[in-house]
Input
Amino acid sequence: MSAVRTTSEIRSLAQQHLFPHFTRAEVWHDADLPVIVRGEGCYLYDESGRRWLDGLAGLFCVNMGHGRSDIAAAATKQMEQLAYWTNWSAAHPASVEAATLIAGLAPGDLERVFFVNSGSESVESAIKFARQYFVSQGQPQRTKIISREWSYHGTTLGALAVTGIEKFKTPFGPLMPGVRHFPNTVGEAVPEGGTAADLPSLRVLVQTIEEEGPETVAAVFAEPVQNSRGALVPPEGYWRELRAICDRYGILLVSDEVICAYGRLGEWFGSAKYGVVPDLLTFAKGASSGYAPLGGVLIREELASALLASPQAGTFTHGATWGGHPVSTAVAVANISAMRDEHVLDNVRALEPHFQHGLDQVVQAHPSVREWRGTGFFYALEFTGDRHTGRELTGQQQVELVREVMPRAMSKVNLITRPDDRGATLLMLSPPLVADREVLDELLAGVDAVASAVDAHVRG
Ligand code: PLP
Output
C-alpha cells in the first residue's frame, strides 16, 4: 500500500512527475493547483472538501454524472469474470453486448461497431476505414479528407491533420497531406427564399471538392454541432445538404460525434437530430460517461460488408490491443442502459427551454456577451467588448479573459467549466445530462457571475 499523502505532497509530486495535457506551465506550477479527489452526481470535491459544480461534465463526457455505483459494479464484475480479451479472431460477450446496444440505437444501417479507446483513435480509424474502403472498391486514388475550419478532431497525427485549428498543428508538421478545410457555419443562416445549398460555406465545400477532383476525395468530416469556435448549431437543412453533396460525388460522410452522441444534444446521436444517416460515425466520451476509456466507429452495413468481401482487402488492416476492452465495453453497456432506463434524454429535452431562457437572461444582463449558441445540454457564450456599441475585445483583453478573469470568477463561485479561445472568446457549458433544474439554475448563476466579471474587466 502506498503511504497516505498530504495535499501539498500530491501537488508537488504532480508538478515533478506528471506531465500535463494542454496546460501552460504557470497553471501547472501554481501553488493552488486543484487536486480533485471525488465526484458525486454533478459535483466534484477537491482535497479540502470544497464542492465544485462540474459545468463541463469532465471534458464533455461524464453524461451520467459522477460516482455511480452501478457502473462501477459492472466494471468490477467484468474484471473478475474476464479482465481481458481481444476483438481479434474471437469475440467476448461484453463488446458484443455493447456493439449490439449501440447499433440498435444508431440511425439507419449503421450496424457495425469498431471499438477503440478514445475520440482521436476513432477519427484515426475512420480515416483509415475510408481509405481502405476505397482501395477495396478499386478507387485507391480517393485519399483526401475535407473538414471544417476551427474544428477539433483529436491529437493523433491523422486526426490532427483533419483538425482545423492551425495553432495545434504547427508544432508537428509535416502532417498527413491531402487535407482541405472549408468554412464552418458561424454567423450563417439560410437566405430568405433559399435553401442550405445557398449557404456560402457549402458553396465553398463544393468548390473545394471540384478543385481537388471529386474522384480523389475519400471523406468529409464534420460534427453535428461544432464544439471549437463555440457550439455551432447548423443552419436549417445543412446536414441534409452535406449528405446530398457527398452522395453526388461518391464521398463518405463522417459525423464526428465524440461530443454530440449519447444524449448531449437530447438524441442518441447528433446526426439523427439533423435527419441524416452518415456513412461513418465516430464516438467516445459519453459512450462510457468517462468511467473507462472507450471510443468507436459506427459503420454502415453495406460499407463494412463491401470491405470485408473484397478480394483487395478482406480485412480491415487496423486494430489495437485495448480495442473493445471487456471492462470498457461492460461499462458502456451499464452506462447506456442506465441512460435509456432513466430517460435521461427526456431530461435534456425537457430542461432545454429552461436553460436557454436562463442564457437569454444572462445575455440581456451583460453587454460583454455577444450571444449564446447551442442546443440540448451543449452551449457556448461568446464575449465581445460591448455588443451595444459594437466595440470588440482587444487582443490583450482576449488573453486576460481566458487566462485570468474567467478562471478567477469561476473559482469564486465554485464552478468548473471551460473558457475557450479557439476562434473567439468563449465560455463552454456542457453539464452532466442528469442535471436537474436546480443544478442548471446554479450553473446559470455561476455563468452570470463570470459574465459580471467580464463586464467589469472590459469596462475598466
Ligand atoms: N473529436 C471531437 C469532436 C472531439 O471533441 C474530441 C475531443 O474533445 C476528439 C475528437 C478527440 O477525442 P479524445 O480526446 O478522446 O482523443
